């Protein structure tokens, strides 16, 4: 397979080409031939460095979704549990979630998962992990909050944040983003009040 550093470089090159292809042509239109051409390689090179089509799609999903996890972890790192909630809201409704080409790839993969049970399970695995991590952040800051309740709020935040990101290209007033963030803050304040914590009105930052 060659030197690991070269293999890693070529794999990254393939995934970058695959992301560009899916963003432009969709998942169905991103054949291995098209990806190979964009990467400046042959189909055999694609298989060599990434694998078959299923393995390529799995690797592409990791390629586009992992940065979101990494940036969220960085936003919450080295903070006390009660400081993580406002930081979480800032992250989910801040510039880190701005639209970019990878969002087109993510949306194409999710659309493709409607007809692909294997891919659907792969994507669900990532989003359920995100749901759990957000729920854990909520419970750490609000000890009285139970698992089911924290998961419900985590799911709501994911829907709100990703739905807002999806609609961002449309000409809604700029106040919509601030308004969505304010609603998330209100939800957390209500949750804190329900469990005897002192609501933090300054969570919007």
Molecular structure report:
The chain is elongated and about 60 Å long. It contains 9 helices and no strands. The chain folds into 2 domains: 1-51, Orthogonal Bundle (Arc Repressor Mutant, subunit A); 53-204, Tetracycline Repressor, domain 2 (Orthogonal Bundle). It is mainly alpha-helical. The termini are far apart. The longest helix is centred in the middle third of the chain and has 25 residues, at 117-141.
What are the salient characteristics of this protein?
205 residues; Arc Repressor Mutant, subunit A; Tetracycline Repressor, domain 2; mainly alpha; disordered C terminus
Which CATH architecture of the largest domain is right? Orthogonal Bundle
List the domain count as a whole number. Answer: 2
**What is the percentage of strand-forming residues?**
under 5%
Rg calc: 20 Å
Average residue-wise pLDDT: 90
Low-confidence stretches: 201-205
The level of helicity is over 70%
CATH topology of the largest domain: Tetracycline Repressor, domain 2
Instruction: Using the alpha-carbon principal axes, give the shape.
Output: elongated
Give the SSE string: HHHHHHHHH
Number of helices: 9
Distance between the amino and carboxyl termini: 50 Å
What kind of assembly state do the chains in view correspond to? single chain
